[in-house]
Amino acid sequence: MVRCTNALPRCVVVLLSLTLCLVNFGTVTSQTERAEIVIDANRTIGKISPLLYGQFLEHMFEGIKFGLHAELLRDRGFEEPPNAIGLSRYWERYPDDRNDDYAIKFEWDRKSSYPERRTPGLTPEHSLQVEAKSGVITRHGIFQPRVALKKGFEYVGSLWLKTTDYEGDLTVALEQDSSAGSIYSEFKLTPAKGSSWKKYEFRLPVKTTDPLARFVILFGGHGHIWLDQTSLMASDSVGSVRQDVLEKVKELQPAFLRWPGGNVAQDYHWQWAIGPRDERQGWTNLSWKNESEPADFGTAEYIQFSRNVGAEPTITVNVEGRGATAEEAAAWVEYCNGPTFSKYGALRAAHGYPEPFNVKFWEVGNEIWGSWVRGHSDAETYARNFNRYAAAMRKVDKEIKLIAVGDNNMEWNRTVVSKAGPQIDYLAVHHYYGRSEMAGDRNNLMARPLYYGRFYEQLSQLLRQLSPGRTISLAVNEWGLDLSLDQQYSMLSALYGARLMNVFERSNGVVAMSAVSDLVNGWPGGIIQASRDGLFVSPIYLVNKLYASTGAGNLIASEVRSPTFNSSKEGSGVSYLDVVTSRSNDGKHIFVKVVNTNLANSMQTNISVQGVSVEPRASLSVVNADSLSVSNSFATPAVVKITNVIVSASSSFQLTIPAHSVSVLTLTLK
To answer: Which pTM value belongs to this model?
Structure first.
């Protein structure tokens, strides 16, 4: 048995290298095996960072648009190229295309759009020009299908119109998407004549749930009319974010949020998404299949969302990607943090935010070592760029904390830290692991997090060597799995995630920030999966929720005796049980986080607590499922779930740790 002592550095090295203090009992063949956890409550061996558990959101597929963001309409600005009859992608002719409706004509118009003035050189924008006449089809127009409606909700919308000769009404409606479908709600308006664009707002209450309804715009008059910047949101949206998604994020108690990427950060220009929403310009997402992205969720919306869920915002600036400059990054800092008498602080105030956003954490680029990002460079070039960007950004606000791009390659880290260490507060490192690395052996997945523990200790030693007298912590602000969906949303992913989080906690603050990839949709690993009409959470979400609920605290010494297993690639003699013990900052509670990576057998575990008196009742929260073959999905959203129970406790007691489970035991001290 390896025993922890008060010699902190040596103990931390042992913990990181071996996962935890353990003795090999040998593998027991019965369905219940035996283990032991001995906790020394008065032996503090480190701290858990208060920033440890954050979240990461990126403009990736429907990670923000139609996932996080509340907008229900796609291509609301008519920017997608048109089909043969002049309608952009996602829009269709109403009632359908069975007959030639000669009384209505559509044109994708680049000569007139809202807003009318754009910065020279940006992609031209479009509106939809409609020419309506009297004809045999009197109820005609356009519609967008697959709009999810909920009973008892009101849907708030708007659109911009311009006309010089249109006579008659225009109707917006929510309808059943079928040939003889019901009209759920409608609103009539009369467009005003004039050469200027005008915004029209409407509210559409519904009394029926329909996940596949349609939004309809009908032209009951005749003449020419231009349409742009349509919008439709549920009235319960919170700052333009879906309420159901926001509530799930709040439950995670994220210490920070990271945005706008990810790879997208190296494509993104912050000026695209500031100011009045309908005056912003959409952009093409070069990182993810050249998807068209609305600029609806920008700096102000991100800051508001972060504050609404109690998280510190962390912004990743573009470094040399797609024409980005250090001056642009500094201007973003000034827009967020500058006083109203500064150039960009005044612009923020003009946009309705006189008080500074006070963004403290700024990441300087994303994965610059990767050939897939714009601004890709070698380590020396990045270090020089980092220093230039740091100087420009800190000239605006000297109090900000800067996160530099690190790598799993130690030579990259050595070069960057040796050249830019005095300016670095955190070094970002990303980890992904999946099917190819597992090589068909689940034990590789169960053991892999221990490799990262050893890597963090090596990297920590390098940071101390290259930056003596300065603390540079790690930000593992992207980590994730590439598994098949049935495994991604099963207990396998939860076991990997929990063991990795235990490694984070055992690092004694070396890992100060972490975030799984992604928060909403994006990868299959997105821990909140949000469709148009529902959501479910992944097992890694459940583990995040449990771990974040324990908060920061003091690591306390523990010894663990557990059976072990061998893996084909990730080592042998690996403990099935992975344990972290900590004490709350107020000293009233001990948290015991136990991951049982034995996929077949439970662990009959004797728990001893030394140095304190324990209340006879303790709370136990367990993430588990009936088997490894079941997974969460829209059809089965809670087959992997958290179970909360009260158990008996004392200075020495027994607890059965279920197979393939993650448990958090909370002991209350007398």
So the answer is: 0.93
Alpha-carbon distance of 73 to 90, in angstroms, equals 9
Q: Tell me which H or E stretch contains 590.
A: strand 589-596
Question: What pairs with residue 607 in β-bridges?
Answer: 37, 653
b/e map 601-627, b = 16+ CB within 10 Å: bbbbbebebeebebeeebebbbbbbee
Q: Quick: pLDDT tens for 12-63.
A: 333 333 333 333 333 333 488 999 999 999 999 999 999 999 999 999 999 9
* Sequence-ordered strand ranges (E) for 370-487: 401-405, 426-434, 473-482
Q: Please give the single-letter amino acid code of residue 377.
A: S
Residues 6 or more apart whose Cβ sits within 8 Å of residue 91: 75, 78, 128, 142, 143, 144
Of the candidates 368, 280, 266, the one whose C-alpha atom is nearest the C-alpha of residue 317 is 266
> What would the pLDDT profile of 486-510 be if each residue is shown by its tens digit?
999 999 999 999 999 999 999 999 9
Q: List the one residue out of 370, 343, 389, 332 whose CA is nearest residue 478.
A: 370
Q: Give one word for 103, left, alpha or beta, with left for phi > 0 and alpha for psi -120 to 50.
A: alpha
User: Which helix H or strand E contains 12, and what residues bound it?
Assistant: helix 8-18
Q: Are 621 and 642 in contact (CB under 8 A)?
A: yes
642 φ/ψ angles, rounded to the nearest 5 degrees? -95, 130
> Whose CA is closest to 225, among 202, 194, 200, 203?
194
Q: Which tens digit of pLDDT belongs to each residue from 72-102?
A: 999 999 999 999 999 999 999 999 999 999 9
